[in-house]
Write a structure and sequence with these properties.
Layout: E1 4-10, H1 14-29, E2 32-34, E3 43-48, H2 53-73, E4 78-83, H3 84-89, H4 92-96, E5 102-104, H5 112-120, E6 126-128, E7 148-152, E8 154-155, H6 166-170, E9 174-175, H7 178-190, E10 195-199, H8 216-224, E11 231-235, H9 244-252, E12 259-261, H10 269-274, H11 281-294, E13 299-306, H12 313-326, E14 330-335, H13 353-376, E15 382-391, E16 394-402, E17 407-410, E18 420-428, E19 433-437
Parallel strand pairs: 1-2, 1-3, 3-4, 4-5, 5-6, 7-10, 10-11, 12-13, 13-14, 17-19
Antiparallel strand pairs: 8-9, 15-16, 15-18, 16-17, 18-19
Helix pairs in contact: 8-9, 9-11, 12-13
Bound molecules: iron/sulfur cluster (SF4).
The site of iron/sulfur cluster (SF4) has 10 residues, from helix 6.
Length: 451
């Protein structure tokens, strides 16, 4: 009798990727093992994202596909929906898709074994969504990657940017105690982890809810002090809480990578106000200048929204102008997507979608050119990458990540996976580089030390 097979489909952010590792932990407790395709699965879990309409629709598209599988196999397969859409819609999902066996929210993933037992006992349409978030044991996770680990430092968000659904589906900010985080990082290093990414909806407000006052740069310093940790990344930051101390600690520490993801959203002060982002374009630019003046070769990436309700050509020009000035390594740009229940969804939105699409296209063209020019600077250079695995772009090639988050694909032997090696960059693309192994590939683990 083979093991029970679980297929987990994950949409959205790093927090969702981490939650899928928690989901796998609880499924393994019930004897399931993860498989990479839904065909032969005994249970399918869709971990959803509600940040934009497109992400939400992915759920409905997949449910359309899984409906046939369910029709053929009946109760031999369980279809489960979790994540932010489930947290937001709850039982509504089963009203629309009655074949969905289980719906669970973002705050009660640990309840999954109980919900599965309930369903297997014969109860139809099991749905459990808890409104209030709470912290959970950091050990109850089944990591997918041997060398890299995601580690939440906090959950939830208190910022309530007017366009954002996150505070409604992820709850209020709660920070994990620093000792717990340190202890867990030490365990990760013992398990051979090379790179840890500290995640949170807004890591910069870490610790504000804790009794013993500690801020994110303090936590980063403590994590950086831990012996054997080669690389530390963190996301996502919010400019309104981005401190001078944070820039200094990144500058001083070799094992904190020189990549900062700092969402701008808009370059127009009028729109930033309507978004309730709580910083101005001038504030943003001064943070960027401070980063560039203090951290060598720092790669800065961002998020921008085009077509926010009430945005006019002049506002869009402000965003375009900042993007040209800052020269981000990469900008994740989206057309505004109204989220039911958010203040922005009620704001007047006169600009036609065709116009917004034209702005979007214009911004993407400018940014892609900049990304390509930024990447071109690496041609001929020797860079260090952590080899992450086979390249999704070309299975015959390996994919590595530079400290500054740049992706490099190259040909090499699979036993390089999990190692930090030197590559010589030969070619630049808009979103990745092509390289070849530089010099011999021995005693490579210590290469990262020299920043
Ligand atoms: S900071 Fe704003 S955009 Fe980011 S998760 Fe919080 S509310 Fe959403």
């Amino acid at each position: 009798m083979g093991f029970k097979k679980a297929y987990i489909e994950t949409f959205g952010c790093q927090m969702n990727e981490y939650d899928s590792e928690r989901i796998l932990f609880y499924l393994e407790k019930l004897g399931y093992r993860r498989i990479l395709s839904s065909d032969k699965a005994d249970i399918i879990v869709i971990n959803t994202c509600a940040v934009r309409e497109k992400a939400e629709n992915k759920l409905f598209g997949h449910l359309g596909r899984f409906k046939n599988i369910k029709k053929q196999r009946g109760d031999d397969i369980l279809i489960c929906v979790g994540g932010c859409v489930a947290q937001n819609m709850g039982i509504e999902i089963q009203e629309k898709f009655p074949f969905v066996d289980i719906v669970f929210g973002t705050h009660n993933i640990s309840e999954l074994p109980l919900l599965i037992e309930k369903r297997i006992s014969g109860i139809k349409n099991v749905c459990s969504v808890i409104k209030k978030g709470s912290l959970y044991p950091l050990y109850e996770v089944r990591r997918i990657n041997k060398y890299k680990a995601l580690l939440p430092v906090s959950i939830g968000c208190n910022n309530f940017c007017s366009f954002c659904i996150v505070p409604y589906v992820r709850g209020r900010e709660l920070s994990f105690k620093p000792d717990l985080i340190i202890e867990y990082v030490k365990k990760l290093i013992e398990e051979g982890v090379i790179e840890v990414t500290l995640v949170g909806q807004n890591v910069n407000s870490y610790g504000k809810d804790l009794d013993d006052k500690i801020c994110f740069s303090d936590l980063l310093e403590k994590v950086s002090d831990i012996k054997g940790l080669k690389r530390i990344r963190f996301m996502t930051s919010n400019p309104k809480d981005f401190s001078e101390d944070l820039i200094q600690i990144i500058k001083e520490r070799n094992n904190i990578v020189n990549h900062i993801h700092l969402p701008l959203q808009s370059g127009s002060n009028r729109i930033l106000k309507l978004m309730r982002r709580k910083y101005s374009r001038e504030d943003y630019i001064s943070i960027i200048e401070n980063i560039k003046n203090n951290i060598d070769n720092c790669s800065i990436t961002t998020d921008t929204i085009v077509g926010f309700p009430g945005e006019e050509r002049a506002d869009f020009n402000d965003t375009l102008e900042i993007v040209k000035q800052v020269r981000f390594a990469r900008a994740f740009t989206f057309i505004y997507s109204p989220r039911k229940g958010t203040p922005a969804a009620l704001m007047p939105d006169p600009v036609k979608m065709t116009e917004k699409k034209n702005w979007f296209k214009e911004l993407i063209e400018v940014q892609n050119r900049i990304s390509f020019e930024v990447n071109e600077q690496y041609i001929g250079k020797i860079v260090k990458v952590l080899v992450e695995g086979l390249s999704p772009k070309n299975e015959k090639m390996l994919e590595g990540r530079m400290e500054n988050n740049m992706i490099v694909i190259f040909s090499g032997n699979r036993d390089l996976i999990g190692k930090i090696i030197d590559l010589k960059i030969e070619k630049a693309m808009s979103f990745y580089l092509i390289g070849k192994i530089a010099g011999k590939v021995n005693n490579v683990r210590d290469a990262c030390a020299a920043k």
